[in-house]
Amino acid sequence: xxxxxxxxxxxxxxxxxxxxxxxxxxxxxxxxxxxxxxxxxxxxxxxxxxxxxxxxxxxxxxxxxxxxxxxxxxxxxxxxxxxxxxxxxxxxxxxxxxxxxxxxxxxxxxxxxxxxxxxxxxxxxxxxxxxxxxxxxxxxxxxxxxxxxxxxxxxxxxxxxxxxxxxxxxxxxxxxxxxxxxxxxxxxxxxxxxxxxxxxxxxxxxxxxxxxxxxxxxxxxxxxxxxxxxxxxxxxxxxxxxxxxxxxxxxxxxxxxxxxxxxxxxxxxxxxxxxxxxxxxxxxxxxxxxxxxxxxxxxxxxxxxxxxxxxxxxxxxxxxxxxxxxxxxxxxxxxxxxxxxxxxxxxxxxxxxxxxxxxxxxxxxxxxxxxxxxxxxxxxxxxxxxxxxxxxxxxxxxxxxxxxxxxxxxxxxxxxxxxxxxxxxxxxxxxxxxxxxxxxxxxxxxxxxxxxxxxxxxxxxxxxxxxxxxxxxxxxxxxxxxxxxxxxxxxxxxxxxxxxxxxxxxxxxxxxxxxxxxxxxxxxxxxxxxxxxxxxxxxxxxxxxxxxxxxxxxxxxxxxxxxxxxxxxxxxxxxxxxxxxxxxxxxxxxxxxxxxxxxxxxxx
Length: 604
Hints:
The protein is of the alpha/beta class. 39% of the residues lie in helices and 19% in strands.
């Protein structure tokens, strides 16, 4: 046969094969086509393929993908536990932060479990923003092939409770995805609900994956899931020693801010600049006694807490929130006491939240006492209370500098309630509830959303008024220890220079040595007009934009409700004016910074 005739016959054969191939792949999903594409590419290269059985052509559908969006670590912790449980049940699991997933890759997923927290006033956590925006956009693909379920973490004291999880659930439904199980919304004491949801979705996923992929081989590698947790965790905290609790605001300051030093001893706990320390605390004995007396109960009354039997006094001291009041408790007490002032606000969620935020449990009880003929059992009381949860504090030290210690900057929450002085649970415990040398139960909460640049030559801008300066003390210690050469610029503010300049000597020392390139201060009450950090940003607009243009990372830490929003508004204004951009372009510029992890926030 002539070469030309052979080529012609081969072409005809290829054309026939192509038609046959098109027919056979007509109904394949994008995932199945992707697998087939990889198979053919490997064959073309002469590669060796371990062929899966025919039924496994939809290879990715054998994988259960778990995505988490987490700001403080709770959603990440639940997702890791879920992944470990699902893997132990024989499922092929892929665990990822939403920030690690390219949004368009959502079309390649067939079985998805989402664990999402809500940040601030209904906002998505930093690592979830890109996927959240993509699924809400016109670019989002149809997802009829996707089976999913959502666990939403939130706090009922906020108006937009579990909003991010609700959004993901709605977006996926609109795109045609089918629920494996209904969404579950969790309050701050989420463990029981999270465990119930996890057990249910694993069971349902096993049924789905088992029926769709019977007798298939595991052809996708298991994503690296770290099931070997640190020895100490939120559930099993380390009992550390409180070394120092020192007031670092002046005698005449309106604030009581403490520098706390804790010894991690031989725990082996490690942390990075930007991480947080979780602190389990106990309620004060005086507050527990006052509450029990106001209720007319007996300290020795026995109550059941999970599988423990404790006295009422023991339970109120270490198991339940009594310095923060939940909306559920307000509703319970309104119905129990039939107090008109409480009944009047039951249908007004905003009023309920405001009342709960400004009244500790004992003040609710005292302001609306029970009628003499109404009986309250100790168990009934604790069943209406929210479980105590640890508080997270931004770590104010670098382990490169302080080794086995960890430092915090804690503002004591304190106010008057009629003739009584009320204090925050954890801040009161650290300031006054435990003496130096006493025990504190702690754990490390890693925060990959608040990290120094990997390139030590990169300039950084740090904005941290008040106790928001804490992680930037850690940043400077870390940069000094690593001999980083990048420029460092701090914006700090508080009420007065003489009383509230936290770590003043240290900042001045860093400035003198050249490690701190520049510092701008905003003390709001040192002059007639109020000056805040956002005002200092605007005053330095040209230089701030110049730093951003040469690659600076910008960090914001502190109050979420006002400061962080005002700072972001100032940044957008600077970007628009200095970059001669429209408001839409400025928003896109800041969004790009955020997606590149050059704009990071640690707000509360």
